[in-house]
Design a protein that fits this description.
- Helices cover about 10% and strands about 30% of the residues.
- The protein has about 700 residues and is mainly beta.
- Strand 5 and strand 6 form a beta hairpin.
């Protein structure tokens, strides 16, 4: 329960707003009634503590991330952005990158990353065509150590798919053929291993893919970049998408890369150039080149440089390609999977969207680059980057394949000379800025929930102040932070106290050049010339000093009583510029050190458990009433039985209704707390009925 004085205010509010105003005006931090209610001596033992000593109620954890990227020739890849995301099956975090950073001059990323405590795996997504996408790194002892790329493909603790069948399941020397629903004959070119990679029909030795090829590939078909915007000429009408053989020749196909989440299969077909297929029924036979075109640690075992010979083709023959979207079944290719052809008129989409391959000529290396898009291009999930599978074709003689209407590969451009190519530079004409990253993500918010009666216990509904936040970081080519934006919005204020909200950062106030955007209306916050709070060694900003300035309403209890009107909050946008770029280590990790300022009393700060107060906190309050902080030992903001006054959530928290304690709404909260955070780590994000009682959760 909250103090009796506050509880009376709530009851009277529900009867009459006028009475509430009268009662609320008399609320103080430590009235005689409050003290009488809380001074009863209770012996607290380990058995009746809600959590073990030392537990700070973190719903997140710090993960030490060490990633190194290598080129195809084992050289460090610098200035490559890498994103870390949760596994796609976790719907609560769907589509959200947890962290983004660029590699340094040695190809390294070293950072401390805040992630939900329930995660044991992170998906790695380097923005580089040529390095495996969506590999799953296991979090071991709160750390990730991975090397991606190079001749070894990857090293570190990564999860590998094990779906497959034995390589000898197809008879040696034979070709297994099946009829598809369209009566096309689908034929395996030979035996394949348990992951669907060619076994007995690959050419030895494999190709050594050159560094220059990878450079052209990243300039031409970069990861996640829409070809329609970056290179519209590649898919313009009249450009070639099939190989046209103009001299009798041997033709080979080499696997270069795959950037898909699907386990795709890729095949080829041939037809007379002068009579291209008008329907899929005109294709008499398709040969499976790569039953599973996925790389090691990305669901397959197909190594870069794997080369196969398609055969010898006469002049006047064209070679087309087909990608079977998610065609690998673990035991072969599903010939009835969604298929997309290089012969565009065979595809189901209308107009220009029917194009599913890009054909480019690399005249320097005498090869043809072939890029595939593996999803129906009318769907929102299609990124149109045409690098879901990358192959290249070579021939003998090298002049046997026509270059007519084949676009050339692109070369990288760096307009501002900062070392980051324009393709990946968010500010291609500004050498002082290069990258944008977000916390918790571009489209999601973190949540902070507070009790405001400290040092007295409250009712633990954790809704006296509920704030959503998001940070946007602008970094230079060296991955140092140039400027930062903080967005803050009020979700709820289940209180009669007029509380404010502030954030302390781990860096000195002197490194801040300018702060703008704070909403200060109550007169008790003093600012230094650069906009940070004065009198503080570390930088402190106050997004708002009164929650009432965020919501224009006479109500004291904002968005905590379902029967009352729900109010929308303004969003405060804080802009912070630094005197010179700071390292990510200096910046620290969000949510930093956020705190509630209680009822306009600047010295009354309510922080997350274990977080130290600022220089302006009233230190005489610590250890009084229900608070058992011991600054000398680093114990802060915990009661005698280890209740907290604040909690942080990486992404979203459906807070309890007014006067409903958090454990009434979340049925495994106490189990989680009692275990010291080792059990039921998803107590707040799991929506199963045995995890929560929706009757006590605010939803409107």
């Amino acid at each position: 329960m909250k103090t009796k004085m506050k509880k009376i205010s709530k009851i009277n509010y529900l009867i009459s707003l006028v009475v509430v105003v009268s009662v609320a005006s008399s609320c103080k931090k430590a009235t005689t009634l409050d003290q009488a209610d809380n001074n009863t001596t209770t012996t607290v033992t380990t058995a009746n503590k809600i959590a073990p000593d030392g537990f700070n109620f973190n719903t997140t954890k710090q993960v030490s991330v060490n990633i190194k990227l290598l080129s195809i020739d084992n050289q460090p890849l610098k200035n490559v952005m890498v994103s870390l995301a949760p596994p796609s099956n976790l719907v609560n975090y769907s589509g959200a990158d947890l962290f983004k950073a660029a590699t340094d001059g040695n190809g390294n990323i070293s950072a401390s990353v805040t992630v939900p405590a329930s995660l044991d795996t992170l998906v790695l997504k380097p923005a580089y065509t040529g390095i495996i996408q969506n590999s799953k790194a296991l979090i071991i002892n709160n750390s990730i150590n991975v090397v991606l790329g190079g001749t070894a493909v990857c090293s570190g603790v990564l999860a590998q798919s094990t779906a497959g069948i034995p390589a000898n399941s197809i008879q040696a020397g034979g070709r297994l053929s099946t009829y598809g629903a369209d009566q096309t004959i689908y034929t395996y070119m030979g035996k394949f291993d348990s992951y669907g990679a060619p076994a007995d029909y690959k050419v030895s030795p494999s190709d050594v893919i050159s560094a220059s090829f990878m450079t052209y590939l990243n300039a031409s078909l970069p990861e996640g970049k829409d070809v329609r915007k970056l290179h519209p000429s590649y898919i313009a009408g009249g450009t070639a998408s099939d190989l046209k053989v103009v001299q009798k020749a041997d033709v080979w196909i080499t696997f270069a890369y795959e950037g898909a989440g699907n386990l795709n299969s890729v095949g080829y077909y041939a037809y007379p150039t002068n009579t291209p297929p008008k329907t899929t029924a005109d294709i008499k036979q398709v040969y499976y080149m790569f039953p599973n075109s996925s790389m090691p640690f990305s669901g397959g075992n197909l190594a870069q440089g794997t080369k196969i010979k398609l055969g010898t083709f006469d002049a006047g023959t064209s070679i087309g390609f087909v990608i079977f979207s998610a065609g690998w079944t673990g035991s072969g290719v599903n010939s009835n999977a969604a298929k997309f052809y290089s012969t565009s008129n065979l595809n189901p989409e209308p107009g220009d969207l029917a194009r599913h391959t890009v054909l480019l000529n690399d005249a320097k290396e005498n090869l043809f680059m072939i890029g595939f898009e593996d999803l129906n291009r009318t769907t929102a999930s299609c990124d149109h980057d045409f690098n879901d599978v990358i192959l290249y074709a070579t021939s003998n003689p090298v002049t046997a394949i026509s270059t007519d209407n084949v676009a050339p590969v692109d070369t990288p451009v760096d307009s501002d000379g900062d070392g980051v190519s324009d393709t990946f530079d968010a500010f291609p004409n500004d050498p002082t800025r290069a990258y944008i990253s977000y916390y918790p993500s571009k489209d999601n918010w973190g949540t902070l929930a507070y009790e405001d009666q400290w040092p007295l216990k409250g009712d633990y509904d954790m809704n006296d102040l509920v704030v959503n936040y998001r940070y946007t970081l602008i970094s230079n080519a060296q991955n140092n932070v140039v400027e930062m934006t903080g967005d803050y919005t009020l979700l709820a204020a289940g209180a009669s106290y007029n509380n404010g909200f502030a954030v302390q950062f781990p860096f000195s106030a002197s490194v801040v050049k300018q702060v703008t955007g704070q909403r200060l209306t109550s007169g008790y916050i003093k600012q230094a010339g650069n906009g940070v709070e004065s009198g503080q060694k570390n930088a402190v900003i106050v997004p708002f000093d009164s929650y009432r300035s965020m919501v224009q309403t006479p109500s004291y209890f904002i968005n905590t009583v379902p029967s009352n009107t729900k109010f929308a909050s303004d969003t405060v946008h804080i802009y912070m510029q630094f005197t010179s770029p700071i390292t990510t280590a200096t910046l620290g990790s969000a949510p930093f050190n956020p705190f509630l300022i209680s009822n306009g009393h600047r010295g009354f700060e309510v922080h997350l458990p274990g977080n130290a107060p600022t220089d302006l906190a009233d230190m005489t309050v610590f250890g009084t009433q229900d608070d058992t902080s011991v600054p000398a030992t680093g114990r802060y903001y915990l009661s005698q039985d280890n209740h907290p006054w604040a909690m942080s959530f990486y992404q979203g928290f459906a807070y309890p209704t007014e006067t409903s304690p958090v454990w009434a709404a979340y049925l495994h909260f106490l189990d989680w707390a009692k275990s010291g955070g080792t059990q039921f780590t998803d107590w707040y994000s799991n929506t199963a009925s045995d995890y929560r009682n929706s009757n006590f959760i605010y939803s409107k």
